[in-house]
C-alpha cells in the first residue's frame, strides 16, 4: 500500500518498539496510558540507538507517548535529528483493559481476552476497532516515509501498533496479524519500498 503521491522507491522504514517499562515487566496492558521507560528501558534505548545510528537515518518519527518519544530521543541525540511526534503511531486504545494484567483481563473478560489472543475482532470494553487502528497506523507510517523519500526513516512506536502497521503497509488481511511475532522491547523491523512490488518486509524483530 502506498500514498500514491510521493515516489518512495528505495525508502527504508525501521519500525522500532520502545524500551521496557515497569508495566511491560508486569504484563500490564498500557494502551494509550502514558507510562515512562524504566531504567532497563532507558539502557535498551541507548544500546539500540547506537546500532540504529550506524544506519544513518534521514528522519525520525515517534508516537507522542513518552515511552516511545524518550526511546526516539536517544537516537535523536546521537544523530542530531529532530524526532517528530505523531499521535497516529500511538498504541491501540484498550479501553477498560488499560492498567490491568493479562490475568485480570482473562478473569473479567474471558471471551474478549481469548478473541484478542487469537487475533479476532474485539468490539467490547471500549477497545479501539481494528479497522481504525489499521487506518491510522498506515497513515502514520506513510507520512513518516514521505519525510525522506528514498532514505531511511526510523519510527518509534509500540508493540501492538507495529504489528498492525506492518500488516497495513504490506496489504495483509487482518486474519494474519496474530501470526506476526510481537517485537521485543527496543527491537525493530524493516520495510523497504520497491517500485515493482511496493513495500516488502526485509527484517523482523532485530536488536543488533
Sum this structure up briefly:
The chain is an alpha/beta fold. The protein is built from seven helices and six strands, in the order βααβαβαααβαββ. The chain is 37% helix and 17% strand.
Descriptive keywords:
single chain, 208 residues, alpha/beta, Rossmann fold, six-stranded mixed β-sheet, 7 helices
Main sheet record: 6 strands, mixed
Q: Estimate the global geometry from the Cα principal axes.
A: globular
Number of strands: 6
CATH topology: Rossmann fold
What share of the residues does DSSP label as strand, in percent? 15-25%
Radius of gyration: 16 Å
By CATH, the superfamily comes out as Phosphoglycerate mutase-like
Strand order of the largest sheet: 3-2-4-1-5-6
Q: How much is the average pLDDT?
A: 94
User: Helix and strand string, N-terminal first?
Assistant: EHHEHEHHHEHEE
State the end-to-end distance. Answer: 28 Å
Structural class: alpha/beta
Domain count, please report it.
1
**CATH first level:** Alpha Beta
Examine the secondary-structure arrangement and name the CATH architecture: 3-Layer(aba) Sandwich
Number of helices: 7
Low-confidence stretches: none
Helix content: 25-40%
Amino acid at each position: 500500500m502506498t500514498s500514491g503521491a510521493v515516489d518512495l522507491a528505495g525508502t527504508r522504514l525501521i519500525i522500532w518498539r520502545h524500551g521496557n517499562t515497569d508495566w511491560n515487566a508486569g504484563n500490564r496492558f498500557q494502551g494509550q496510558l502514558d507510562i515512562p521507560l524504566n531504567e532497563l528501558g532507558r539502557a535498551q534505548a541507548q544500546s539500540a540507538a547506537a546500532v540504529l545510528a550506524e544506519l544513518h537515518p534521514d528522519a525520525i518519527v515517534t508516537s507522542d507517548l513518552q515511552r516511545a518519544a524518550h526511546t526516539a530521543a536517544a537516537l535523536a541525540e546521537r544523530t542530531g535529528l529532530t524526532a517528530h511526534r505523531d499521535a497516529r503511531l500511538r498504541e491501540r486504545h484498550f479501553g477498560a483493559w488499560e492498567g490491568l494484567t493479562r490475568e485480570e483481563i482473562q478473569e473479567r473478560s474471558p471471551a474478549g481476552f481469548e478473541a484478542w489472543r487469537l487475533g479476532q475482532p474485539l468490539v467490547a470494553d471500549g477497545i479501539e476497532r481494528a479497522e481504525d487502528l489499521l487506518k491510522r497506523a498506515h497513515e502514520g507510517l506513510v507520512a513518516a516515509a514521505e519525510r525522506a523519500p528514498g532514505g531511511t526513516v526510523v519510527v518509534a512506536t509500540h508493540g501492538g501498533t507495529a504489528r498492525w502497521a506492518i500488516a497495513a503497509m504490506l496489504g495483509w488481511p487482518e486474519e494474519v496479524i496474530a501470526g506476526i511475532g510481537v517485537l521485543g522491547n527496543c527491537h525493530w523491523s524493516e520495510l523497504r519500498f520497491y517500485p515493482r512490488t511496493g513495500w516488502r518486509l526485509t527484517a523482523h524483530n532485530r536488536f543488533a
